[in-house]
Amino acid sequence: MFLQLPTRWIAVLFLVFAGLTWNACSKDYSLEKNNGSIIDPFIPEDSTDNGGDTTTDEPVDPPTQPPVNGPGDTNTVVNADFVKKATYINRAQVTNANLAIDRGAVQAVRDFGAALKLRFSQAQDDIEVLGNQLHVSIPGQTDAAHQAVTNSFLDMEGRTFDIGYIDYQILELQNTIDLYRKQINESTEARLKAYAEKYLPYWEQFLQTASTIRQSL
For a pLDDT cut of 70, what percent of the chain falls above it? Predict the structure, then answer.
């Protein structure tokens, strides 16, 4: 039997996921605005100005093409956005898992929180290594939308917490799956694709587990 959640919790979830959806839709626009201002250092300067003497003993090579994956290209934007959003998710999931371990009324919720904490902690460790390799900034904490959800959990106890936490996981894990699938399909960075392919099956399995737990609450 489903327990009706407080109106405040429903409002929080609606606002949070509306904000997450808006952020996902607007990210490309804000980043693409900066692409036009980047000067590619690999384009050679004009070599015809040599003091009025236009003759040369050697043929002039044609201008070289800029690298496909140079600074500011679309793939770089996709990679940076994925690292940022995955970090937000990882950090929030670890924090919320600690709450589930402490506040879960049923053992299934506490065990689920422990499993999430372990796997998202590993995912964050791995992405920090990749971020350093790719020179991509790693956020030091989660974003405001995820933090708002965590704050709302602090007002919940017992079965109300269990239902709120599992309902949230069903939504959040689906968003995470969508993010990882997008990275696999759109990025040509082999290391990040391998990262997404490694963890995607865990998130899919967690989503199935959350759905099963929800039916028993």
Answer: 65
- Residues 189, 83 contacting (CB under 8 angstroms): no
User: Which 3 state secondary structure label does DSSP give 176?
Assistant: helix
> Distance between CA atoms of 79 and 62, rounded to whole angstroms?
32
CA distance 136 to 127: 10
- Label residue 51 left, alpha or beta by phi (over 0 means left) and psi (-120 to 50 means alpha): left
Residue type, position 205, single letter: Q
Phi, psi of 94 (to 5 degrees): -65, -45
Residue whose token pair is 């407080």: 6
Quick one: tokens of 202?
């865990």
Residues near 73 by Cβ (< 8 Å), separated by ≥ 6? Answer: 35
Indicate yes or no: pTM above 0.70: no
Structural tokens at position 116? 């999430």
Q: How far apart, in whole angstroms, are the C-alpha atoms of residue 29 and residue 63?
A: 31
Per-residue pLDDT tens over the stretch 133-153: 999 999 999 999 999 999 999
pLDDT digits (tens, 9 = 90+) for 19-61: 554 444 444 433 343 444 333 333 334 444 444 444 445 544 4
Cα distance between residue 109 and residue 101, in whole Å: 7
How far is Cα 65 from Cα 68, in angstroms, rounded to an integer?
8
